């Protein structure tokens, strides 16, 4: 009888690939004939979805290439000769054959497959009904998250609603994909609990589903629903962490601002992640990649405390007592402080920074979603209230903007500095129509680079069923 192996290390999915054009079968995962029979099977299969959130594809190089370096707040980092291929993302010279494009594509599809295994098979298991329904709801929210990643990066993609024999299927439209995401999140939000006991921290919640849904509506430009849904989240009792530095340290994990956060605790089962290691100070904490740009430095207003708590500098001593090295010509001189893990708290069992949680959605983002939606609906007073809440935490005064057009720009600017280096900047620029203005000097081409190419291997495997995005050949 075959055995099942669902909890993968962050490197195991790099080996091999399936023949299907979306590489939908997770590498290293064998579904045994006698699996999906017990409550424990259901829990293990659902946990395997969470393991992907910590994976190399979702938090390491591929995600950082595509959602980080392409923006104007992050650059390659490290020394010039190390992984120089990352520069292709910084100057938009990547092609349909670029490995990172394919890596992100296959990784997200492997994650979708894990969610579909749970959504399809867990309802058939005789087990506690409430737990069964909750696990399916967790899988639906996570499937929506992976599809949200796919549609923002590649545009319309095939919709696989459950397991199927043939994955050679044409692309659905972006509108159809967004509708599918909305359906999953709406159904998940109806079942997911608002909180969990400490032993289950990191499992997705009702607030997480509604928070992600409000962000999805913002991307859809359905401002009324974005406003209404974000108001539901605001009413749930979340609040801003009053200390911006504390927010990103291990002590701030799963705090009052946490809406959707990946638990990266180092354990025998999960083994942390490399999210912090790849960005840590080179030759001291990590590899030194994905560092802040001068444009980001210049974006902060005078007096904004977020600047120093976002950008870690050579020679400084952190509030936690670490002296950051200086004078290393191969290491650079600034790094992402949001991923910094104090030496005193580092767990060497899993590598530097492996305990650093990944904040996917914070309450500050919800407030800014609500402010943007309110402003687009003409409710400038609410928009001003919520943008000011975020500004006050940063030790800034009230926004000087008062008209709808001025507030629109102020909210977009606030998103830039509040969410800096959290992999939101590129997609924010695209959805707001600012990409040419800010990314044109880097090589961004309007009408092409709003989306990434469908990988060459995927098109080849589809035997022509998949079509390419405009501007790529």
Instruction: Specify the oligomeric state.
Output: single chain
Q: In which order are the strands of the major sheet placed?
A: 1-3
Helix and strand composition category: mainly alpha
Q: Total helix count?
A: 18
Q: Rounded to an integer, what's the Rg over CA atoms?
A: 21 Å
The outline comes out as globular
How much β-strand is present in the residues?
A: 5-15%
| Structure summary, number of beta strands | 6
Give the fraction of residues assigned to helices.
40-55%
CATH architecture of the domain at 1-179: Alpha Horseshoe
Spans with pLDDT under 50 lasting ≥5 residues?
1-21, 25-30
How does this structure look, described?
- By secondary structure, the protein is mainly α.
- The protein has a domain of 179 residues: Serine Threonine Protein Phosphatase 5, Tetratricopeptide repeat (Alpha Horseshoe).
- The chain is 43% helix and 5% strand.
- The chain has 18 helices and 6 strands.
- The strands form 3 sheets. A two-stranded antiparallel sheet has the order 1-3.
- The longest helix is centred in the N-terminal third of the chain and has 26 residues.
- The N and C termini lie far apart (46 Å).
- The N terminus is likely disordered.
